[in-house]
Amino acid sequence: SFDLDKPIGYDGYQVWGFAPALTYESRNSQTYPEKGLFIELRPTFYPKLLANSWAFYNIRLDARAYVLLRCLHKKDVLAFHLLVNLNHGSLPFKEMADVGGSNIMR
User: Fold this and answer.
1) I need a surface site. Which of 5, 55, 83, 88 has the fewest CB within 10 A?
2) What are the angstrom distances between the C-alpha of 12 and each of 8, 9, 84, 91?
3) What distances in angstroms separate CA 42 from CA 20, 21, 27, one per listed residue?
4) What is the pLDDT at residue 88?
């Protein structure tokens, strides 16, 4: 026989959390930035005391930097993007860190 491990949350779960966000924004445009920084640190806490099935936390850091180059064209921009998404604790499968989303790797 072949046994499959069922991940945490397989039979359903309920989570409630608290997610304060710290944001620094110095980009000259949100849609087509040519210079500046965007940094967001968002820790999310899911404590056991809020009727959660499990206790865990997530820390997400999104940092972006834009530099106007003007090498080949006057609007050439070099962009850097760092994304860190860390989890700790006993978290359900659907709450695990993922790759991509509505704003990243689309």
Assistant:
1) 5
2) 9, 5, 27, 12
3) 6, 4, 19
4) 92
Between the alpha carbon of residue 49 and those of residues 16, 46, 57, 90, the distances in Å are 10, 9, 13, 14
Tell me which H or E stretch contains 61.
Answer: strand 56-68
Is 81 in a helix, a strand, or coil?
Answer: strand
Contact (CB, 8 A) for 89 and 54: yes
Report the greatest alpha carbon distance in the chain: 66
Helices (H) then strands (E): counts for the chain:
0, 4
- pLDDT by residue for the chain (106 residues), tens only, comes to 445 677 787 788 788 889 999 999 999 999 999 999 999 999 999 888 767 778 899 999 999 999 999 778 888 999 999 999 999 988 888 888 777 777 776 5
